[in-house]
Amino acid sequence: MLSFRLSLFAIRHSLFAPLPLEFAFSPWSQTGSCRPAISARQGSNRQILTMARRFSAPYQSEPVSSLATWARNLAIFAIVAVVVSILIVRFGFLEMKPALATFFGALACAALSILIGLAAFAAIWQNGSRGMSRILLALVIDAVILAYPAYLGLQYRKLPPIHDITTDPIDPPRFEALARLRAGDGTNPAVYAGLYSAEQQRLAYPDIETVELEVPAQRAYEITLALINKRKWRVVDERPPQPRREGHIEAIAQTLIMGFREDVSIRIKADGEDSRVDIRSASRYFDSDLGSNAARVTKLIEDINTAADNANAKPATKKPPAPAKAPAKTVKK
């Protein structure tokens, strides 16, 4: 403990020791300028460094706190486990349950690392051992790991516990090609969640409703499909609208970080010379989507309206008129 205090004394002395000054008068100036003497400052710096080495040598010989090492190692293990679980979910290496078990185990390791880091800090404060840098590294890693789950926890408290969002709760677009993917263990069913979900959606997201476009159904289908491809969603089924058949698109989207699958079904049908587009986005897992499906549908509605307005605003391109043929020349004889 004495060596630790002596090290702090040396650092404080090096930061706040006054520098000797000397006055030098410039031959071209009538006023005196105060500047540090270079030689005196160098000598003072040597003394400070010598004193710092003398006082810090005992501190460097102190052992590193084993608790600090454990806190750092647990934090590194936790972030590796988080990355592995994300890769498992995003690329589908294993089922959802092992991936979630790995993820929550990593969160538990991060929380345990924080507790051990606090205990290591108390031990270092008492016996003057080393390891503060390891504690700080562990706390930074743990904060990075736990920040996003903490944000999701706040969203869970604020948002309604629903996972199926649609612009038409009375007759939502159906999952046809994707229905078999929603029949496994632990997945949400392909049928719509029901009137309770519709009422919760109406209260939380009142702006989500059917998209009415002043473009033909075929053009609305092309605009919607282009936006889906731009988002790099995996299209499972696509059927353009026909005179007696609605257009239909099914695709798979993924959440930004964890990569959870969320299924999208879109229906395009003619409304006279105009068209109507209905969208449905539903999480494949979990009872609450934490607002991800509503955000996806809202953004897609905005982009469809913008693209349709731009298509209507484009002037019709006219072919340039063919140049008039020059009259045949007559040669006088």
Question: What does the model show?
Answer:
The chain has about 325 residues and is α+β, with helices and mostly antiparallel strands. The chain has three domains: about 1-60, no CATH class; about 65-160; about 165-310, Alpha-D-Glucose-1,6-Bisphosphate, Chain A, domain 4 (2-Layer Sandwich). The protein has eight helices and eight strands; from the N terminus they run αββααααβαβαββββα. β7 and β8 form a beta hairpin. The radius of gyration is 35 Å and the shape is elongated. It starts with a helix and ends in a 20-residue tail after the last helix.
What is shown here, in short?
With 333 residues, the chain is of the alpha+beta class. The protein contains eight helices and eight strands; from the N terminus they run αββααααβαβαββββα. The termini are far apart.
Spell out the blueprint of helices and strands.
Elements: H1 2-16, E1 21-25, E2 32-36, H2 38-60, H3 66-91, H4 96-127, H5 132-158, E3 164-166, H6 195-204, E4 211-213, H7 217-230, E5 234-239, E6 247-254, E7 261-271, E8 274-283, H8 292-313
Antiparallel strand pairs: 1-2, 3-8, 4-8, 5-6, 6-7, 7-8
Helix pairs in contact: 1-2, 3-4, 3-5, 4-5, 7-8
